[in-house]
Write a structure and sequence with these properties.
CATH topology: Rossmann fold
Bound molecules: adenosine-5'-triphosphate, magnesium ion
Distance between the termini: 23 Å
Mean pLDDT: 93
Oligomer: single chain
CATH architecture: 3-Layer(aba) Sandwich
Structural class: alpha/beta
Number of strands: 5
CATH superfamily: P-loop containing nucleotide triphosphate hydrolases
Length: 196
Amino acid sequence: MDAANLPVAVVGMACAGKSEVSGQLVTGYGLESIYFGQVVLDEIAARGLQPGPQSERQVREELRQAEGMDVMARRSLGSIHAAVDAGRKVCIDGLYSGAEWQLLTQQVGLVTLAVHAPRWLRKQLAASRPGRPLTASELDERDLTEVRRVDKATPIALADLHVVNDGTLEELAARIAALMKRLPPAISSRLRPPAS
Ligand SMILES: Nc1ncnc2c1ncn2[C@@H]1O[C@H](COP(=O)(O)OP(=O)(O)OP(=O)(O)O)[C@@H](O)[C@H]1O
Ligand SMILES: [Mg+2]
């Protein structure tokens, strides 16, 4: 694969702005978004459960227990390969675990973009986001679980590109535009973890 067409994985803690960044990559740069959280939402629908943070957590944990920590990536491999093989440039919204990063880096190849926002702001965004609000204490609990049990911090700390989302959406768009100019050096110096 041409390295310039590597999928861009958008990583970050909950409510840091990953979906906003992915949306900007879609509308501004023509990337096709693949949302890993959709694996959980599809499973909730298939099981006929009530959508919401509780069922999301339950299904996420059950899937990981049954199929491994890289289940979301594994279940999304088909759609990623199909897009990449067809020459479409992909961004992955919300890669969750260190294991998913490992799998995709080895099986597809990735450049990672970390979105950061301070916790006070993530709490505000979490409480007011439409559809799937999270309370401040739910966000704290989720942060600790994701760092300690899901190894979510590894791909964030080791990301090839970083953006801070602590201003307006217009400021975020300007920062993303600056980052996209630095995509070629980020791709050529990307981290490729050895097989585990
Ligand atoms: N800079 C910003 N200005 C205003 N609203 C924002 C900004 N960034 C994100 N938001 C809003 O905050 C909420 C959380 O952002 P977003 O959904 O992009 O986060 P996320 O990292 O994808 O969260 P999750 O981990 O739950 O998928 C959304 O409602 C989004 O529209
Ligand atoms: Mg999101």
